[in-house]
Amino acid sequence: MSLFSDVPQAPPVAVFKLTADFREDSHPQKVNLGVGAYRTDDCQPWVLPVVKKVERLIVEDESLNHEYLPILGLPEFRSAASKVALGDDSPAIKENRVGGVQALGGTGALRVGAEFLRRWYNGVNNTATPVYVSAPTWENHNGVFTDAGFKDIRPYHYWDAAKRGLDLAGFLDDLEKAPEYSVFVLHACAHNPTGTDPTQEEWKQIAEVMKRRKLFVFFDSAYQGFASGSLEKDAWAIRFFVSEGFELFVAQSFSKNFGLYNERVGNLTVVAKDNENLTRILSQMEKIVRTTWSNPPSQGARIVSKTLNSAELFDEWKGNVKTMADRVLLMRDQLKAKLQALGTPGTWDHITQQIGMFSFTGLTPKQVEYMIKEKHVYLMASGRINMCGLTTKNIDYVAQSIHEAVTKVQ
Fold first, then answer.
1. How many CB atoms lie within 10 A of CB 17?
2. How far is it, in rounded angstroms, from Cα 167 to Cα 60?
3. Phi-psi region of 103 (alpha: psi -120 to 50; beta: other; left: phi over 0)
4. Bridge partner residues of 193 (DSSP)
5. 193 preceded by cis ω (within 30°)?
6. Core-most of 102, 158, 318, 362, by most CB within 10 Å?
7. CA distances to 47, 205, 316 from 61, in Å
8. Each residue of 189-243: pLDDT tens digit?
9. Burial class, 21, CB count within 10 angstroms (exposed 0-12 / middle 13-18 / buried 19+)
């Protein structure tokens, strides 16, 4: 008998299982709206032109080698990534109280931050500190903080299913009732999975309560630039909280806005009270990284670093990002228009009111099941769809499929 005979089979990760099912489907009109990655209008992955250019520069740079990076990562990448999040004119950067930790994607940045908070936030070994995540949220948030050792993961009100928008009253009430020093994971922009973000005025209300209640802000920023096409607009909430004097973490991912999905390029930006605090925080994060992946990989970080640190390449990248964002916005407009033209029951204004890669359609689990089994249109059970999976070639079929699901399945 094996020593591992009693190991249970873990359930598959839902989004990857969905993609596997899609690949096995032989239907000629099948559509994958589940995977969280950008697709062109031909439904193909897109390597950003600026990325191709920088990759050639790296290959031709005779000064580069494959020596280990520092434990905290490529210095010029870390500083450039933090500047993208906070802005070149950030007072926190000028006051030398901002640092970064290169991580394996946004997930790695979240994990390093979570591990540090569990060990050192507001004392030592804070397993009982409540960590709040939005309801709903990206499924990995719960797992990351649970595996880091937190025992009390709680949902906060976010999505109002009836009005298909933000439940601000419920959100603010949860902030008011949360124990002081609780940790709140906030989506910086393009909320996953709902695509619903607070307005700037609503962010101000959220910040006011969080400051008064002494709550810790941990931003997850996976879609900067990708959501609206504007780096500044998508980082507004982060920069406002910094301007209000918060000490906070920002987990950044460059998977979406650089198309570097398999390079796992992430950064944990730390905004501390002062430089002395920052130095001590980073020293402990270095210990965490050392026993996790020891040293980060260089290729993806070099691509991002060279792009962000060159004015010419930076402008080209912003143009590439806007190309992706504009296609998503176009698909939102067209899907809403086609559903309205079909007379599909219900309101579909939320499709264009939401932002970013994902849309929370409002389809029920039974309607989703109909879409998959009868129409071969694959989406998450929650009704979340990836707007990038829509193209000018399949949008009519998808709209008709949604119409059938809504009218036939209650």
1. 12
2. 52
3. beta
4. none
5. yes
6. 102
7. 21, 49, 21
8. 999 999 999 999 999 999 999 999 999 999 999 999 988 889 999 999 999 999 9
9. middle
DSSP one-letter string for 171-237 = HHHHHHHSPTT-EEEEESSS-TTT-----HHHHHHHHHHHHHTTPEEEEEES-TTTTTS-HHHHTHH
Please state, in angstroms and rounded to a whole number, the distance separating the CA atoms of residues 404 and 399. 9
Report the pLDDT value the prediction gives residue 237, as an integer from 0 to 100.
98
Q: Are residues 238 and 86 in contact, defined by beta-carbon separation less than 8 angstroms? A: yes
Which residues are catalytically annotated? 138, 220, 256
Residues 6+ away with beta carbon under 8 Å from 306: 54, 57, 58, 313
User: DSSP of 355-394, one letter per residue?
Assistant: -SSEEE----HHHHHHHHHHH-EE--TTSEEEGGG--TTT
Amino acid at 62: E
Alpha-carbon distance of 146 to 131, in angstroms, equals 9
- Looking at residue 43, what DSSP letter applies? S
**With contact defined as beta carbons under 8 Å apart, do 86 and 272 qualify?**
no
Q: Which residues have CB under 8 Å from 192's CB, separation 6+?
A: 36, 137, 138, 222, 223, 356, 357, 358
Cis peptide before 12 (omega within 30 of 0): no
Report d(CA 155, CA 13) in Å as an integer.
21
Amino acid at 359: S
- Within 10 angstroms of residue 28's Cβ, the number of other Cβ atoms is 6
Q: How many CA atoms lie within 13 A of 390 on its CB side?
A: 27
Amino acid letter, 9: Q
